[in-house]
Amino acid sequence: MIWKIFGKTLPVSHFAMLPFLWGIIYFLLKIGEKISSRTDAPWLVLLCFASPVLAGQSVLVSPDIVLVCFFLIAVWAAWEHRNGWLTLAVIGLGIVSMRGMMLAVGLYLFSLILPSERKVISPDFFKKMLPLLPGGLLAAGFLLFHWYQTGWIGYHESSTWAPSFERVDLRGFLKNITILGWRMLDFGQVFLWFCLVLVVLFQMKTRNWKSPPFCRSSIGWQLVILALVVAVTIVPPQLFHKGLLAHRYLLPVFLTVYFIFFRLIFNELGSLKVFRKYRRPLFYFILIGLLTGNFWIYPKKISQGWDSTLAHLPWYELQKQAENFIRQSGISYEKVGTAFPNIGPREIIELNGVGEGFVEKNLAANCYVLYSNIMNDFSDEEIAELENTWRPVFHAEKRGVCVILYKNSKPETCEN
After folding, report:
1. Count of CA atoms in the C-beta half-sphere (13 A) of 144
2. Are 239 and 183 in contact (CB under 8 A)?
3. What integer best gives the mean pLDDT of the chain?
4. What confidence tier does 209 reach under pLDDT thresholds 50, 70, 90?
5. What are phi and psi of 362, to 5 degrees?
6. Contact 389, 409 (CB under 8 A)
């Protein structure tokens, strides 16, 4: 719709994301006010956007930003018993992605444990389902129509992403659990988890074991339940498949953990005199720790979630330099092999009307290969071969991101 009005360009696409980014900020403020107070609410916004995952996605044209916006609306609406807003949010989640549909199920489970307006937990499952019903019916109708038209739902065997949906065996499942733990600690989040554990232990020490950190009737307890139901609804499918543990897929889980930490710092422990003078320095420590995550760059042979950190920003400038060199050298696009996210017509990447583009890498046949460490699809063996037997003809690097154009050392591959 935005393209029809303003034209199909990359800047227009980014401006189309602004309403959702503003929505995220606004509803984080509303949730922060609910968790703690209106005065403290801006600190929740700062905490969440200090996360490299949310910050990294925020500079992209990303469906996960839309998903997060509707997720936050739904959380706030469930808390405030705003059924109209909840209906709108669930419809939004349902039309964004299948993960959005799963999140809607988690939010229904969350709404079941929330006190009703009469402050009594309602056993009326069907009454609490009504606000979610329009979104659920819309999502179900879409899936049925899609299956009728195409014969598949989610993915198909010929899909580019089909390998990511392959089922894993027990060994793969255990590996995925390890990767999940890595994702939860990655990009500076280890600092938050470390402090979260310390704060909980401190709170237990200052009370007794019969009085847990979160009372059942408190907002804090509801936050724990929210984190659990969100994790239970979106994490298991990721553990049973080969390539679904991307950082951005876990954004709702990360945000609920941030909510818990924010509640502990600004509310649960803010009332304790012995802790009051330490809470601000601890909060600043977490902010700095999260921000350092944007500078976490792993060695070339370790895959990294580049779209979930601001560390990828130099890529655009470096890629342009490489492309200008290729054009000035008279090298045709089809002679250059590369990997995601740089394969295919430039039109689908830059919306610039250029139908030409780089081809998928094949080191046995390519004359040139355009490599960058932001590309996770180069195997260790391919990287070693490029470095040892190919000749670099262009090299540019900035803040840990590199772009290298290699030429094949075998003359016969460049004859045609």
Report:
1. 6
2. no
3. 87
4. very low
5. -150, 95
6. yes
Residues 6+ apart with CB under 8 A from 180: 235, 238, 239, 245
pLDDT at 188 over 60: yes
Structure confidence by residue, pLDDT tens digits, 86-129: 999 999 999 998 889 999 988 888 888 776 544 444 456 777 78
- How many C-beta atoms surround the C-beta of residue 5 within 10 A? 8
Nearest to 188 by CA among 303, 279, 56, 69: 56
Tens digit of pLDDT for each residue in 133-149?
Answer: 888 888 889 989 988 88
User: Burial, 226: exposed, middle or buried (Cβ in 10 Å; 0-12, 13-18, 19+)?
Assistant: buried
Which is nearest to 129 in space by CA: 149, 110, 152, 144? 110
Which token pair is 224? 């724990």
List, for residues 350-388, the tens digit of each pLDDT value. 888 888 899 999 988 889 999 999 999 999 999 999 999
Residue in the block written with tokens 């894993």: 168
* 3-class SS of residue 273: helix
CA distances from 81 to 85, 86, 120 (A): 9, 8, 13
Terminal CA-CA length for the chain: 44
| Alpha carbon distance 315, 339 (integer Å) | 14
* Whole-angstrom distance, CA of residue 62 vs CA of residue 139: 20
